[in-house]
Design goal:
155 residues, 7 helices
Length: 155
């Protein structure tokens, strides 16, 4: 009930609870609660995600690409999956951007992104002192598999 002062005014003008509930499309009990002496004049209802946002942030900080059902399991979410999906969709970009900017190892070498993996032959690993090792050419099936993996992790 967002319009409690108006309900109180209508009731004071002599309109009945049933008429008010019908006109405002709310239950009669909602009108009775609005007319109660201890009723607040402003409407406030806590958001279902307020309690869980810190836990979801912790999970996304460690696993920014984790799926919503897995996050729900980790934070013991017992409410609507859609509500959690909306929260994760709102928070995830911040953690993905952070993970991309921190995607370097201790030596300042950037980790390879999945988008950079293409079909072909890799160059020898001269930097690590193992220049005699070369990767073989990827098959079409392996390229398809890597592409599907990339799409699944960014979804």
């Amino acid at each position: 009930m967002r319009d409690r002062p108006k309900i109180i005014q209508l009731h004071a003008d002599g309109r009945g609870i049933r008429e008010i509930s019908r006109d405002h499309e709310v239950s009669r009990n909602a009108v009775r609660r609005a007319l109660a002496e201890d009723a607040r004049m402003e409407y406030w209802r806590p958001n279902a995600t307020e309690e869980f946002e810190p836990a979801v942030r912790d999970v996304l900080a460690d696993y920014p690409h984790m799926s919503v059902p897995d996050i729900a399991t980790m934070v013991d979410w017992r409410k609507s999956r859609r509500t959690l999906s909306d929260l994760v969709a709102r928070l995830r970009p911040e953690y993905i951007d952070r993970a991309d900017s921190e995607a370097t190892d201790g030596n300042g070498i950037a980790a390879a992104q999945l988008e950079t993996i293409t079909a072909g032959t890799f160059q020898p690993l001269k930097l690590l002192g193992i220049a005699d090792i070369q990767a073989r050419e990827l098959t079409a099936q392996e390229v398809t598999w890597w592409t599907e993996l990339k799409n699944a992790t960014h979804a």
